[in-house]
Write a structure and sequence with these properties.
heterodimer; A: 13 helices; elongated; B: 196 residues; mainly alpha; Rna Polymerase Sigma Factor, Chain: A; 10 helices
Chain lengths: 376, 196
């Protein structure tokens, strides 16, 4: 195997002697033989060496043959049937099996590499795609914000009528709008969910987008370089499922907070309207807290009760929404994660098993080969 | 002689069939052992061991040349004997030379004239002495190539080494033999003397 290394360490004299010996024993290749014969024609000393070596070879070959001093035959009564030695008989088959196992192992590794690379390319989206998704989420979030603002405005407008009876329909409108807001959030979640394992990133982006203005979101999305996006995707791929759920919950919490804010506004408006019956009308912005207010009148108590029932309704809706989101998230995530995890896991297991088998086969084959070559 | 048939019968436990093979190859086997070990008694022991081992391991024989297979076995038996000798530290050139004087080699020498006989004996002794002075691997390679006439590939199989190793061993063996024979210059014909 390492004959070329030995050739590197040979001196010219040794190489010359080896050529000469091989020529004498007729073991040179036709090309080397022609080369050496050309060399012989030009070199008298080499010719003399050749003749001397030939004489020595002839002398050795003419050493008298010796006869065996006795017979080496075996006594039939002492020796039975020779053992079959099945282990060594299996050597050729074992050699073939080892080669086949190595081929399968290499093929499996290649498949793994191919699958990993293709999976990587689909899971890691480009920066443009990431930016587009972030923009879309930001737009959805912006729309939600606008819905919220509009609902507040509508509430304010309804408050401006000064009629307590109108408070309930205004609250219903606000509740409906909050539900719409939740649906918008859900949509933004549904955009983020299929993008696993980068779903974490997108879910977080969506959650942030609900809280931040669209302009800021766009700016952030653009700041993500391809390398960072890939690093984020790779690093968060493992904890993708859990973080995505957390992000969804965070989104819902943010939504609930906003709902409560809307509810607070509605409640304040109701209180102010109730107070309007006894006091002079005041701007909504300057509404005092409940603690600072005078003792509630029956009218105010009614308004508060109505607002609280609306709040309960509003709290129930996010609960349902949360459940739906969780179910959808859990349904969406296993499609990507379980499938790939099971596939890659079984592939890795097969690789390990096959690798160990190949090592074992190689070891056994080498041991048998040594015994076969060595002979008895 | 139907060699393959005898081998098959021997594999089936027919010792007599195997003995036919033994009788056919015993001189060749003994000759190689004698050239490697340089000692008739050790050569006989190594030959006997080789035939016994070959019979016991006949199940491993996978076809091909039975003679080459036997050569490999007897070579291994000689290696074992040489290792035992090294452990005992009993090997010395003087002992080998003494044994050579009473060896079957001289008995089987058929030189017709006493003077020629003397000259050939001296040359043979000189070559044998030089062969004995070679390292074991080089000696075995040289004997299998020059005495037994095997080609490099067969020798590589018998010695379980690469073709390049065989070439190298034979080349070095010949170079050392050439140098060694210069010490017997007065005994040798002109063609064996080193030309400087």
């Amino acid at each position: 195997m390492f004959g070329f290394l030995r050739n590197l360490t040979k001196t010219d004299k040794e190489k010359r002697q080896e050529f000469l010996t091989a020529y004498l024993d007729d073991s040179l290749s036709p090309k080397d033989r022609r080369h050496f014969e050309q060399w012989l024609e030009d070199d008298d000393a080499l010719r003399a060496d050749l003749e001397q070596q030939r004489a020595i070879k002839d002398a050795i070959s003419q050493l008298p043959r010796v006869r065996a001093p006795r017979s080496f035959t075996l006594d039939p009564s002492l020796y039975g049937r020779p053992s079959a030695q099945p282990g060594l008989q299996l050597y050729p088959a074992l050699r073939v099996a080892t080669v086949l196992a190595m081929f399968v192992f290499i093929a499996l590794i290649s498949i793994d590499v191919f699958v990993s690379e293709s999976g990587f390319s689909t899971s890691i989206t480009s920066t443009d795609e990431l930016a587009q998704v972030a923009e879309k989420a930001a737009e959805e979030a912006g729309a939600s914000e606008r819905f919220g603002a509009e609902s507040e405005e509508q509430s304010a407008r309804s408050d401006a009528t000064g009629e307590i009876a109108a408070a309930a329909p205004a609250e219903e409108v606000a509740a409906e709008e909050v539900v719409e807001l939740e649906e918008a959030v859900l949509e933004s979640e549904s955009i983020a969910a299929p993008q696993q394992p980068t779903g974490t990133f997108i879910a977080q982006e969506s959650a942030l987008a609900v809280e931040e203005p669209p302009a800021e979101r766009e700016g952030e999305a653009e700041l993500v370089s391809p390398a960072e996006a890939q690093a984020n995707g790779a690093a968060e791929a493992e904890s993708g499922t859990r973080t995505a759920e957390l992000s969804a919950v965070q989104t819902l919490v943010g939504t609930q907070e906003r709902d409560e804010q809307v509810l607070g506004e509605v409640r304040k408006t109701a209180e102010v309207e109730a107070l309007d019956g006894e006091t002079t009308p005041q701007p909504v912005v300057a509404t005092p807290t409940l603690q600072e207010m005078p003792a509630p009148t029956p009218l105010l108590e009614e308004a508060i009760a109505a607002a609280e029932s609306t709040a309960d309704d509003l709290h129930e809706v996010p609960g349902d929404v949360q459940q739906v989101v969780e179910e959808e998230t859990l349904e969406a995530l296993p499609d990507v994660d379980e499938g790939s995890a099971l596939g890659i896991g079984s592939l890795r297991l097969a690789e390990i098993f096959l690798g160990l088998s190949v090592l074992f086969l190689i070891l056994i084959t080498l041991l048998l080969r040594r015994q076969v070559q060595k002979g008895p | 002689m139907d060699e393959q048939g005898l081998i098959k019968q021997a594999k089936d436990g027919d010792v007599n069939a195997y003995n036919t093979l033994v009788l056919h190859y015993q001189n060749t086997v003994y000759n190689v052992a004698y050239r490697i070990l340089g000692d008739p008694a050790s050569a006989a022991d190594a030959s006997q061991d080789a035939f016994i081992s070959a019979y016991k391991a006949l199940g491993r024989f996978r076809g091909g040349s039975f003679k080459s297979w036997m050569m490999r076995i007897v070579t291994n038996a000689c290696y074992d004997e040489l290792r035992r000798r090294k452990r005992r530290r009993q090997s010395s050139l003087d002992e080998i030379t003494d044994e050579n004087e009473s060896s079957p080699l001289l008995i089987s020498d058929k030189s017709p004239q006493p003077e020629e006989h003397q000259g050939r004996t001296e040359l043979v002794l000189a070559i044998e002495s030089c062969l004995e002075g070679l390292p074991d691997e080089q000696r075995i390679a040289a004997i299998l190539c020059d005495v037994e006439g095997y080609d490099y590939k067969e020798i590589a199989d018998m010695m379980s080494v690469s073709l390049g190793t065989v070439k190298s061993r034979i080349s070095r063996a010949r170079a050392k033999l050439r140098d060694c024979l210069q010490t017997f210059a007065e005994l040798l014909p002109a063609q064996y003397r080193h030309q400087t």
